Amino acid sequence: MMKRRDSIKTMILGSIGASMTLKSCITSEDKIVLDQVWKYSYGRTQDELKWDYKVLTGKFFSETELLTIEKIANIILPPNNYGSIKDAGVVELFEIIAKDFSTPAHNEYGEKVLRRGLIVFNELSNALYNKDIIECSEKEIKSIFDDIAFNDNEDDHLQEAIRLFAVYRGMVLTGYFTSEIGIKDLGYKGNTPNVWDGVPEEILKDYSVSYDQEWISRCVDQSKRNDIAEWDEDGNLLT
Length: 239
Hints:
- This protein has 239 residues and is mostly helical.
- The chain has 2 domains: 1-58, no CATH class; 59-195, no CATH class.
- It has 12 helices and no strands.
- The longest helix has 21 residues, at 109-129.
- The protein is elongated, with a radius of gyration of 27 Å.
- The model is unreliable at 8-24 (pLDDT under 50).
């Protein structure tokens, strides 16, 4: 199954394939990617193609900002047996949303909310420890977040930080629990076929019936569940 972010990336890249091939130079790296995603192409207008390419190739957060987001995300949702924030691609989700929503139509969400969050968190960190979040220990970061993790804190000076932390927490959890490892963590099985071994023995006894052992060995053999049944000309089951 294609991973969630892989499918998003292939749709975006596939949509710009024809435009790039016909109108501009493409690097060897571009060609490799385009060759891989060509079959996932979909209809887009020229303006949409330009926007997709801008989002795909642009960069919003600096490396320091991305590392800070990763550090914050790992405090909100620490690694577990299923994987980590890095495995789930949570930081990449922040980057995609920041680029995609950095428009007047979205009230410059990337700048005014996501980047603003980093600024506010660093201001709190510097006020307490005279250093940015990225330089703080896990214990120090937790002490900062303890004051802004709940809406019942009525400190007027912390209201913006409380709102921004709620955004970050929501995005971290959304990014993680919509990833492959997050879905496994939830234990979600989806449309997974179960294994049927026939009517339970206690039910058969209640009705004083039983299976014919020859037929049960043919029809309820889970080692052959993917085999296609074959019949002879007289209608007798062969497999």
